[in-house]
Amino acid sequence: MSPRTQATKQKLFDATLRLARTNGMVGLTVDDIAAEAGVAKGTVYYNFGSKDGLIDALLRYGVDLLADRLRKADEVEDLVDAALSYFADYPAFAQLLVSELWRTPGQWHETLTLLRDDIVSIVKEHMQRLADDGRLPAGVQTGTAASALFGTLLVVALDWQVFQRQRTRDEVRESVMLLVRGLGPNP
């Protein structure tokens, strides 16, 4: 992909996230997105084929960025910090994920299922290490723990960005880590 094409796609992603954050996805039109991005309406169709194609690509792009950050985490605390840092950098993406993940079944349900599975598998690796160290209570499945941690991070990050902006990321991270540390005996 040429740098120009990538720059255009980035402008469209940024515009869509700005609009989604203030107006939500319902009723968002290609005209709105193009106007916000400062491009012709045809640019959206040329690059993505439709609004749905744009949203699908945006979801994939956003989750790929999150997955890249999470994969770099060595410990659960690093993973929590990476997720909170990401959602601080992209608060509109957290809002979009929450709204679309909980809609049953949403327009982008298939894409979101694949993307959610990718993120949860990364978190599950960390949960498995905790389980292997005896730090998960007996009977807790690593998949359930991974889903719980991802869901917690997503909702806590959104709550922080919308309702508790005065809190620092360190304060939010420590609150989540107190919860995580309480899962089992500390070594």
From TrEMBL:
Domain of life: Bacteria
DNA-binding region, residue intervals: 29-48
Keyword set, alphabetical order: DNA-binding
Any one GO molecular function term: DNA-binding transcription factor activity
Alphabetical list of InterPro entries matching this protein: Homeodomain-like_sf, HTH-type_TetR-like_transc_reg, HTH_TetR, Tet_transcr_reg_TetR-rel_C_sf
Residues covered by the HTH tetR-type domain: 6-66
Protein name listed in UniProt: TetR family transcriptional regulator
Organism: Kibdelosporangium phytohabitans
